[in-house]
Amino acid sequence: MRPLEGVRILDLSHVLAMPYCTMILGDLGAEVIKIEKVDGDDSRKFGPYKNKESAYFMSINRNKKSVVINLKEEKGKEILRELIKICDVITENFRPGTMNKLGFSYENVKKINPKIIYATISGFGNDSIYTERPGYDIIAQAYGGLMSITGYPENPPTRVGSSVADIMAGMFSAIAILGALRTKEKTGLGQYIDTAMVDCIFAILENATVRYTVSGEVPQRIGSRHPSLTPFDVFKTLDSYMVIGIGNDNLWEVFCKSIPEFNLLVMAERFKTNDLRTKNQAELKKIIEEWTQKHTTEELVTIITDAGVPCSPVNTIDKIIKDPNTKYRDMLFEFDHPIAGKMTTANSSLNLPLTPCKNHVRPPTLGENTEEILSKVLGYSKEKIEELKKDKIIYGRG
What we know:
Elements: E1 8-11, H1 17-27, E2 31-36, E3 49-50, E4 53-54, H2 55-59, E5 64-69, H3 74-85, E6 89-92, H4 98-102, H5 106-112, E7 117-122, H6 137-143, H7 164-187, E8 192-196, H8 197-203, H9 207-215, E9 232-236, E10 241-245, H10 249-258, H11 274-279, H12 281-292, H13 297-306, E11 311-313, H14 317-322, H15 324-328, E12 332-337, E13 341-346, H16 370-377, H17 382-390, E14 394-395
Parallel strand pairs: 1-2, 1-6, 2-5, 6-7, 7-8
Antiparallel strand pairs: 3-4, 5-14, 9-10, 10-11, 12-13
Helix pairs in contact: 1-7, 6-8, 7-8
C-alpha cells in the first residue's frame, strides 16, 4: 500500500500549480479524480506535442483519472455535488471568486460534506488585499522578490528557468493537505487551505530576507555566486562551465592543498577566512578561473572531486536525462500512451522504501475515466450515463 491509499481527491485544478500538488498526492497513493471541461485542462494545449497530445500535460498529470463534466449546466453541478459527498479533499486554482460564482465556495461545499478539506491556490491568496489581482508564475516571482535577486547586475531581473512559484505553491499545498488529513484523522474536522504563490516565493527567499532585516541591505542580483560563501560560484572552463562550492574554511584549505596551483593561496591573508574571501571574491574568482579555463570540465570535476571538494558540471538537460545516476535513481517515468505512444517524463523524487511511490498509472486521455467514475463510484446506470452524454453534460472516450 501507498501512504494515501483510501484518500480520494476531487481535483478541479488546471495548468500547473495545483495539478503539481495533486500529482504528488497521486504519487503517494491517493485516488485523484480530475474534473476537466469539454476541451480539457488548458495545459492540454501547451506544447511540446506528440501525435497531437500534450507532453506538457502528461508531465504533471500521472496517477489521475480524467472526468469531463459541463459545470455550466445544473445536471453537471449535481454530479459534482455527488462526488463532493464521497471525497476527502477538493482542490482548485481558479482566480478567486470563480468557485463562488459556480456555487461551490468553501461554505457551500462544507454543507455538502462537513468534513471536506478544501484547498486553493491563487496568486495572492483568496483572503488578501490583492484578491482581484490575477496571478501567474512570473507575476509571483516578480512580486515576491525572487526576480530582483536572480541574474547578473548588468542585466534585467530574470525569471528562474523553471516555474518555481507554481511548483512551490503545489508542494506547499501538498504538505498542507497532508497536515490537514492528519488533523482530520485525529479530530474528524476538515478545513480550508488558502495557498498564495507570492507567499511561497517569499517563504523561500532564504538569506535574502534576513540580510535586509538584520542589516538594512537590499539584496541585489549578483549572478550565480553565493552572497555569504566564497568561492561558491560558476566558473568558465576550457569547454563549458562548472560550479565549485566551498562552504567553510576547512574545505578551502583542502582545496588549496590538493591542487598544486593553489598551494600558496591558503597562506594568503586576504583569503584566510570565508568573510575575507567574500570581501575579495572578484579577485579570487579571477585567480580560480585563470586555472579552470586551462582544463576541460570533465578533467576539473575529477580533480576537484578527488580532493573531496563539492563541484559539478553545469549540465544541459540532455546530459542530466542521460546521466547514469538518473536511471539508477529511477528518475525517469517511461510509459506507453494510447495516442502519443512511448513517452518519458521525470519521475517522482519521493523515496519511501516501505510504500514505494514510483510505480505510476500513466496520465489519462481527456475524459478517459468519465464512465468509470460515474458507474463504479457513483453507481450510475448505463442508461443514465448515455442520457448525460446525449445532453452534453459529460464526455468520455471510454
